[in-house]
Design goal:
The protein is 47% helix and 14% strand. It contains six helices and five strands; from the N terminus they run βαβαβαβαβαα. The chain has a five-stranded parallel β-sheet, sandwiched between helices. The longest helix has 32 residues. The chain is globular. It starts with 7 loop residues before the first strand and ends in a 10-residue tail after the last helix. The structure holds the ligand Nc1c(C(=O)O)ncn1[C@@H]1O[C@H](COP(=O)(O)O)[C@@H](O)[C@H]1O. The ligand Nc1c(C(=O)O)ncn1[C@@H]1O[C@H](COP(=O)(O)O)[C@@H](O)[C@H]1O binds next to strand 3. The site of the ligand Nc1c(C(=O)O)ncn1[C@@H]1O[C@H](COP(=O)(O)O)[C@@H](O)[C@H]1O has 18 residues, from strand 3. Its EC number is 5.4.99.18. It catalyses: 5-carboxyamino-1-(5-phospho-D-ribosyl)imidazole + H(+) = 5-amino-1-(5-phospho-D-ribosyl)imidazole-4-carboxylate. Keywords: Isomerase, Purine biosynthesis. Catalyzes the conversion of N5-carboxyaminoimidazole ribonucleotide (N5-CAIR) to 4-carboxy-5-aminoimidazole ribonucleotide (CAIR).
Length: 179
């Protein structure tokens, strides 16, 4: 974790969400973005949750990543009291495969946006926060471009390996983009 004052707040409804939410922190680490981590539950600690949301911008945070499972009201409630962008992570629990979490987070009323990532998609939440910050940071934007280039190279390499494997098995019949 970078030692600068945090610009991203990673919060979750319970410490039991951390195994999923950790991937957001790892993505931010890759881009050397400073963040803080806390448990802030709309259901179990509503006053603290409101205070967190109301104070976040004043404390220097630029983006909030909020993960919760089940009746996942935390991201939407935070979005209702902060002007900052809120990224919601639906945490899958043992029942309903995270569909409950997803639907609780994604279907916000007009006027109160939450950028919802996929069920368990905490890594993308971290990467989306990095992109939001990069919009006003040329250095970070350059790193994001490099990251995208690496992804491209990895995917291209996977295609090459797959074609080689299938062409080998089929005795030389090829397919694909030819790159
Ligand atoms: N969805 C919420 C909220 C909330 O939205 O305020 N607070 C806790 N929780 C969720 O309850 C699940 C079980 O929590 P426990 O493991 O503590 O029982 C967690 O996934 C948490 O995010």
């Amino acid at each position: 974790m970078s030692r600068n004052s945090p610009v991203v707040g990673i919060v979750m409804g319970s410490d039991s969400d951390w195994p999923v939410m950790e991937a957001a922190a790892e993505a931010l680490d890759e881009f050397e973005i400073s963040y803080e981590v806390d448990v802030v539950s709309a259901h179990r600690m509503p006053r603290e949750m409101i205070a967190y949301g109301e104070q976040a911008a004043g404390r220097g945070l630029k983006v909030i990543i909020a993960g919760a499972g089940g009746a996942a009201h935390l991201p939407g409630m935070l979005a209702s009291v902060t002007p900052l962008p809120v990224i919601g992570v639906p945490v899958p629990l043992k029942h309903l495969d995270g569909m409950d979490s997803l639907l609780s987070i994604v279907q916000m009323p007009a006027g109160v946006p939450v950028a919802t990532v996929s069920v368990g998609g905490a890594r993308n939440a971290g990467l989306l926060a990095a992109r939001i910050l990069a919009a006003h940071d040329e250095e970070l934007l350059a790193r994001m471009r490099e990251f995208q280039q690496e992804l491209n190279e990895q995917a291209t390499e996977k295609g090459k390996r797959l074609r080689a494997r299938i062409e080998g098995a089929a005795g030389g019949f090829g397919f694909g983009t030819g790159t």
